Amino acid sequence: MQQAPAIGIDIGGTGIKGAAIDTATGEMLTGRHRVPTPEGGHPGDIAAAVAVMVSGIRDELAENGSLPRETAPAVGITLPVVVQHGIARTAANIDKSWIGTDAVRLFSDATGLPCLVVNDADAAGIAETAFGAAHDVDGVTMVLTFGTGIGVALIHDGCLVPNFELGHIELDGHHPYERFASPKTIEREGITIQEWAKRAERLLEHLEFITRPDRFVIGGSISKSSDEYLPFAKVNVPVVPAHFRNNAGIVGAAGLAAQAH
After folding, report:
1. Which CATH number goes with the domain that contains 177?
2. Which residues of the chain, if any, have pLDDT below 70?
């Protein structure tokens, strides 16, 4: 990763968060900005919210002396979709009109800056590989981001296999399984975190059986409570919390954007 500051924006089904990142270390150079995802999750509304956030982050960079306002930063943006050559091919927890949208052009036009767009879990996987729980780890690591949905990134010897969307599989009659095992079920169904963890453990048990990873990394906001549900007794390989917790997508998106800038 290059040393120039870059901006990472992580778009989820319920919130949009972002910050400027020192891409040499993965550390934040600004505060963490967050706004709710616009109701409905339509492309134009999300792009407008992202443009406002990017402008605010640039102002903060200029104020703290990290990057002059006239200097255009690299901007990386995550979406909960399969991204191929900048085009959104699926839509999970956002409006279906995203399918077929040229997301790179949409965000570049909205922000006035060159943007890179990547799957949200893939960005988290990149961050954990560069600086976090999967750094210098040989073999196969599977990074799962538990949020509104469940994202999955597969890392082999430090290299990403993109768009590995296994949170959408059918398991035990639940399709997609992310609807049953997302942390949102804690609030939606009034279950405990331990009850939720049994559902998550079942997913990892199944993914271990079909993909044989060497370790799992648990990301998303639920990872900060990992001492309440780890270890998973039915999973044979190590399961560890993400180093960047719920900020991994921001860090990974910024790093990828800096590389491409």
Report:
1. 3.30.420.40
2. 1-2
